[in-house]
UniProtKB/TrEMBL annotation:
Lineage: Bacteria, Bacillati, Actinomycetota, Actinomycetes, Kitasatosporales
Domain Alpha-D-phosphohexomutase alpha/beta/alpha stretches: 6-133, 156-255, 263-369
Main EC class the enzyme belongs to: isomerase
Protein's organism: Streptomyces platensis
GO terms, molecular function: metal ion binding; phosphoglucomutase activity
RNA-binding recorded as keyword: no
Protein name listed in UniProt: Phosphomannomutase/phosphoglucomutase
Gene name as annotated: algC
Cofactor: Mg(2+)
Family membership: Belongs to the phosphohexose mutase family.
Residues annotated as domain Alpha-D-phosphohexomutase C-terminal: 374-446
Amino acid sequence: MTDLSQIVKAYDVRGVVPAQWDEPLAELFGAAFVEVTAADAIVIGHDMRPSSPGLSDAFARGAAARGADVTQIGLCSTDELYFASGSLGLPGAMFTASHNPAQYNGIKMCRAGAAPVGQDTGLADIRARVERWSDEGAPEPVAEPGTITQRDVLGDYAAHLRGLVDLSGIRPLKVVVDAGNGMGGHTVPTVFAGLPLELDAMYFELDGSFPNHEANPLDPKNIVDLQARVRETGADLGLAFDGDADRCFVVDENGDPVSPSAITALVAARELAKHPGGTVIHNLITSWSVPEVVRENGGEPVRTRVGHSFIKEEMATTGAIFGGEHSAHYYFRDFWNADTGMLAAMHVLAALGGQQGPLSQLVAQYDRYAASGEINSTVDDQTGRLAAIKTAYQGRDGVTLDELDGLTVTADNWWFNVRASNTEPLLRLNVEARDTATADRIRDEALAIIRG
């Protein structure tokens, strides 16, 4: 029996091409996607990886064979695919492995309006069909197969974003953008065209072999070039996009990273100015400053688990106007509750360009605490180590524990969260405190238990 458990993840399909999956399998995924979503039309996009065009064409053939009309938008960022799904009202599929190395590829799928497809919302059903068809053969094509047509939506995507954040009146800014040879090199020139921005473009050539550095700005080594360029050129800020350009990281005029929590708080304040009294979602690893800023600006913060399916579900349930994660995913009600790093970057540019001070000064009001960042530890027994931490802190005076996502331990002047990785034998630790000395002490204390 075919087993696709190694490539069908919680939220997407991802694996090595062609060792774990290939074009014939992509064709079956296209057919299954149409059956599960009951779609009569879909939209497909892909990133710059060498395997992406072939895989996306195969998916299109499988979808058309089940009767769906297919619109291919070609090279695009993941949030551009979400735009197409939302604006056209069609289920969508994006071929990308985000920040993974070159030999990987994957599929991010959504229903019409960019609603996510995860394990509980169709992905398990899609996997079951593909596994069955791999063994028994694909179903016969329907009597009237669908059509496959091409459409360019980049200009419409850029216009939509520029309609949400007005940058026309900002002071001139010098911005360095590191696209990491990913899809930011495709979208940024069109989105930023004609704005009062002096753009210093780094690694804009689309190259799925990632010749300069991995397209994963969450790893500090991958923003070193950006930091150096900002310092050398006296730029106002730097932006780094991941491979499929749905996440954006920011560095200030000194080349220092701005935490995604500070960006979440800044964007939340701006969105609340547009939508007074709105709800803002934040995952449980974002800084204490996020709910504080939301309340200070008249909003209602809602804490949720880590992961885009949880954020999007909570946004749909609460009607939230915005959501942010510590991993630099930013979600907007005005963007079909989908995540778009580009729109977050535009908010930062608007905030910075709307006043005279430097970015470091602007974000200081949103960056109030000392944080460890995410620290990964390889462990033999995730459950046992989590239990040991729980035992160590349970019953301490002034300390509370909750298990919304992993284990969160909270005191008056510090908190930490420990979560197990779904895919690796790791525990992930995040610590925050009111001062650096306390953050360091709690970090060391927790790590001593985690690492035994």
